[in-house]
């Protein structure tokens, strides 16, 4: 399965695309950052973000999109921009009919590092190891995006298979009546 992980941000939005399956290391397909001009009008920045994400989607054709869920911070202005970027990221995947999922930062850290309280350095180190990269992806937004994609591969794929099995069982029970 190919997953596009997105670390949403209005100025820097990390994008990481990984091929893999649950329980396997996976392989990095692409990594990058979509940047917008902080001086530009908000609508232009959101459009630039959408254009940049669409270019990654069209070039790499992922089967799913995973986005880091926005969490409350002390800086309300930062949270609002991140939430707007998150909405654009989810819309970009949904527009193409791709399944989308969100994960909290602690879910991503736990999936990749084994601890929901891991720091950025630990996440980057584990992403580098898991994907067998020669050097750490930079900037941190890019490494985080790869971590989000890995989290979805390892957790989201399993969740989807469980949900499908439950649906099949429900259908069989309904058919048997």
TrEMBL record:
It catalyses: Endonucleolytic cleavage at a junction such as a reciprocal single-stranded crossover between two homologous DNA duplexes (Holliday junction). Its main location: cytoplasm. Mg(2+) 2 binds at residue 68. It is found in: Cytoplasm. The active site is at residues 7, 68, 141. GO terms for molecular function: crossover junction DNA endonuclease activity; DNA binding; magnesium ion binding. One of its GO terms (biological process) is DNA recombination. Its EC number is 3.1.21.10. The RuvA-RuvB-RuvC complex processes Holliday junction (HJ) DNA during genetic recombination and DNA repair. Endonuclease that resolves HJ intermediates. Cleaves cruciform DNA by making single-stranded nicks across the HJ at symmetrical positions within the homologous arms, yielding a 5'-phosphate and a 3'-hydroxyl group; requires a central core of homology in the junction. The consensus cleavage sequence is 5'-(A/T)TT(C/G)-3'. Cleavage occurs on the 3'-side of the TT dinucleotide at the point of strand exchange. SUPFAM superfamilies: Ribonuclease H-like. One of its GO terms (cellular component) is Holliday junction resolvase complex. Its cofactor is Mg(2+). The keyword Ubl conjugation does not apply. This is Crossover junction endodeoxyribonuclease RuvC. Belongs to the RuvC family. It is an enzyme of class 3 (hydrolase). Binds 2 Mg(2+) ion per subunit. Mg(2+) 1 binds at residues 7, 141. Gene3D superfamilies: Ribonuclease H-like superfamily/Ribonuclease H. Keywords: Cytoplasm, DNA damage, DNA recombination, DNA repair, DNA-binding, Endonuclease, Hydrolase, Magnesium, Metal-binding, Nuclease.
């Amino acid at each position: 399965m190919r997953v596009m992980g997105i670390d949403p941000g209005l100025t820097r939005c990390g994008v990481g695309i990984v091929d893999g399956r649950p329980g396997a290391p996976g392989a990095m397909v692409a990594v990058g950052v979509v940047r917008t001009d902080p001086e530009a009008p908000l609508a232009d920045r959101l459009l630039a973000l959408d254009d940049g994400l669409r270019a990654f989607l069209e070039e790499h054709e992922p089967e799913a999109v995973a986005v880091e869920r926005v969490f409350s911070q002390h800086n309300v202005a930062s949270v609002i921009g991140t939430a707007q970027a998150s909405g654009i990221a989810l819309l970009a995947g949904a527009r193409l009919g791709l399944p989308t999922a969100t994960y909290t930062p602690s879910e991503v850290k736990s999936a990749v590092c084994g601890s929901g309280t891991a720091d950025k350095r630990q996440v980057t180190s584990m992403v580098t190891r898991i994907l067998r990269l020669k050097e750490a992806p930079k900037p941190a937004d890019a490494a985080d995006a790869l971590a989000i994609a890995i989290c979805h591969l390892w957790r989201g794929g399993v969740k989807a298979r469980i949900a499908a099995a439950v649906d099949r069982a429900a259908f069989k029970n309904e058919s048997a009546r």
